[in-house]
Every structure is written in C-alpha cells, then in structure tokens.
Amino acid sequence: MARIGVVTFPGSLDDQDAARAVELCGAEAVPLWHGSDSLQAVDAVILPGGFSYGDYLRCGAIARFSPVMDQVVRAANGGMPVLGICNGFQVLCESHLLPGAMIRNEQRHFVCTDQRLRVETNDTTWTRDFGVGDEISIVLKNGEGNYQADPETLQRLEENNQVVFRYIDGNPNGSNHDIAGITNERGNVVGLMPHPEHNVEELTGPSLDGRTFFSSVLGFLAARV
Ligand SMILES: NC(=O)CC[C@H](N)C(=O)O
C-alpha cells in the first residue's frame, strides 16, 4: 500500500483531514512531525492547510525553516510527489519549490466558500485523472491567498503549462491571472489554495472532486512500481 506522509507544523489545522482523505482513497497516511529529519520512507508528501507558527510574518515563512522541509525539498527535487494545500502552498512558495508568493486577499477579508475552478492541466502527478477544462468545486478558506509573481514568471508559468487551476465565476482574492494552483516544471510538486481534502465525502460535500487528487497520485505511484 502506498505511504503518503502528512506533515504537522505547530499550528497546522487540516493535517487530520488530509490523513483521513488519504486513507479514504486507499493509501496509508504517515504522520510526519515538522521537527523530524526523516521522511520515514514515504512515497509522497502532503503539506496541509492551517496556520503554521501562528501566521506570524508571511504565512509559511517560518515553516519553511522546519527541519523536515530540508528533506521535503531534497525529495521533491528528486521527483517525489508533493502536494501543498493552502498553508502548504504558501510553504512551497516560501521554500522556492514553486515560484511566486501569496499576499493578503485583495478585499482584506478571510474568504470561506465553495469555489469553482477550472482544471488547466492534467500533466501533473496530482491531477492526471482530471480532464483538461474540467470545472470543479473545492472548498476555499484563507486570508492570504492572493497569488503574485513578476511578469516574467507569470509568462513562464503560462507558456510551460504550469498553471494547474484557475478560479472561475469570479476571482475571490485578487490572484494574478486568476491562479488558484501551480506546478513545478517536472509536474511532481503542486500547490493550490483550495482544499481538496475537504471534498472527499458525501456527508460534507458538496462535491467529491477532491478525491481525484488522491486517485491521481495513487495511480502514478502504482504505475511506477
Ligand atoms: N486554510 C489555510 O490553510 C489558511 C492558510 C493561511 N493561514 C491563510 O489564512 O491564508
């Protein structure tokens, strides 16, 4: 059975939900403490949502220096699948595994909503089971989700097909190019502001679109063995 590591930083909020989603989708969730310098032989890593280190400084700016992140960066650069959800996406940007940065939402309010997204590429480890152009609904809940990058970076992301998700039916936070999620050039590292781990069960609905992230990575790992 595939082993998916879920990192817990001080202030992580959604690590338990991410672990539950991993198990519902048929893998073993392996808890990884932020102070550990071992990834415990996991096959993939999820950096979950929350308020790591209390969101002091920019969100994710302190978590980046957690000992476990040295291992995550090394593994990601070696091709391991890594998914950063919301605060996890912020940590991936702060760690320079993904380009750009997040600033406060344009309207200066915390946003909590069922957000419509368009899938822009399925050429990543975490989106291979989606169709390009699929429109999905995933929970969005953050205060610092306004994705910013310089014009050259935005152009490179667009030209390389590294924009993975775009907000549709309105931009909720002012993100450049309506960007909700991006990937690295290799497609193994994906970060997004919405929370797929909250869209995996009928009970909490409204969609089950989050499951496709987990089926995607599990399919990738199964094909690799
Ligand atoms: N849900 C989250 O992960 C929130 C991330 C971060 N604390 C923010 O408000 O932007």
From TrEMBL:
PROSITE patterns according to UniProt: GATASE_TYPE_1 (PS51273)
Coarse class of the protein's main subcellular location: cytoplasm
Subcellular location: Cytoplasm
Organism domain of life: Bacteria
InterPro entries from the UniProt entry: Class_I_gatase-like, PRibForGlyAmidine_synth_PurQ
Keywords for this protein: ATP-binding, Cytoplasm, Glutamine amidotransferase, Hydrolase, Ligase, Nucleotide-binding, Purine biosynthesis
Pathway: Purine metabolism; IMP biosynthesis via de novo pathway; 5-amino-1-(5-phospho-D-ribosyl)imidazole from N(2)-formyl-N(1)-(5-phospho-D-ribosyl)glycinamide: step 1/2
Entry GO MF terms: glutaminase activity; phosphoribosylformylglycinamidine synthase activity
EC number: 6.3.5.3, 3.5.1.2
Catalytic residue positions: 86, 195, 197
HAMAP family linked to this entry: PurQ
Oligomer status and interactors: Part of the FGAM synthase complex composed of 1 PurL, 1 PurQ and 2 PurS subunits.
Protein name: Phosphoribosylformylglycinamidine synthase subunit PurQ
Originating species: Luteococcus peritonei
